[in-house]
Amino acid sequence: MNSLFILIAEDDSDDRFLMQKALEETGKDIKIKFVENGVELIDHLNETRAQENGHYPGFILLDLNMPKMDGREVLKNIKSDSEFKKIPVVVFSTTKNQMEVKRCYDLGANTYIVKPVNFDSLVETIQDIHTYWLKTATLADA
């Protein structure tokens, strides 16, 4: 599981574009898959599980406010699944509300990060996330 593969759930096309550019700026060879809502994310994980040599992401970068199934519902689904719960979930949201942060941790989020307000900070944050989850942390095999 500790691969250079990130699954990013983000419904806003501008944010997806900026995240793609920020990942490119880090200079890391990172494979990413974008999904636009929680249903697509869960579908992707289920499709991966069905493959004989399915490869789960090193971590999931999860926006909270998405259509069809929001990030809170996704988090609850992932962390209640015996196989998916091993995948680290980084909540990546504009919401700074402490009750929301606590709620996400209660649902099983591994980390909660407030989205940076400018591109340089986004690049730095993506670099930090990459370094921690794909290089520093020791993760259980999914």
Automatic annotation (TrEMBL):
Keywords: Phosphoprotein. It holds the Pfam family Response_reg. Coiled coil: none annotated. The modification 4-aspartylphosphate is found at residue 63. Residues 5-130 form the Response regulatory domain. PANTHER family: RESPONSE REGULATOR RCP1 (PTHR44520:SF2), RESPONSE REGULATOR RCP1-RELATED (PTHR44520). This is Response regulator. It comes from Sediminibacterium roseum.
